[in-house]
Amino acid sequence: MPVVEFLQFTASEKLISDRTIANPLLDILKGTEGQISTFYGIQVEDEKTGYLVVVWETYEHHKKLTESPSYKDLLDAFKPLYTGEFTIRHIPCEVDPHTAFTAPTTEFALLRPNGVGKEACQETIGELFQLMVTCPGIHLPMSWGVSREDSEAYYMIFGWDNVEAHVNAIHEERLQPMVHKMKEIFQVISVGHVKLTKHE
Question: Which SUPFAM superfamilies does this UniProt record tie to the protein (predicted)?
Answer without folding.
Answer: Dimeric alpha+beta barrel
